[in-house]
Amino acid sequence: MKRITLSLLFSLAITAMLSMQAQAADMVDLPDSCEDKGMNIIVCPLDDGVDMDDAIDSMKLRANSLNFKLVAHMPLSEQVKAMGEDSRRMEIFQFCDALIAKKMVEYSIVFAGFLPCRIAIIENADGSASIVTLNMDAMIQSVELTEELEKLGLIVRNNIFSIVQAGVEGDL
What is the reported pTM? Predict the structure, then answer.
């Protein structure tokens, strides 16, 4: 009996380890140029030769291919200019999977404060541009989730990081 139990436990441990490795293999990584700037905010400079319009088009196309809805676009610099001030270009895009968002908010109302997922593109003082977003890894790790919600959180994380990656690289 003990042999069967130990064999079963060993088998379960191997299965769990392989499952974790498979999940890690599916993880989307941000480009190496991205940095966590504190407060769980990631800043990613655009690759050389990628302009802001190409980055935006790439992000929208990637989101569409992932079936991740662009639910809002705020061209903040245009609003600032309309108010009589000069402004470097800054735009915020908000993406969402409404069904995942619903499940997360039902689990904890705190998630409503993070919805929808935001990605900003900002023109830097030197004329270059960067993409800014929330560190989704820190967000997922900071909350105790059910196994189902953790999987859904990883889907959102991978989609957001994939959208950022497409923008940084100008991957049309």
Answer: 0.81
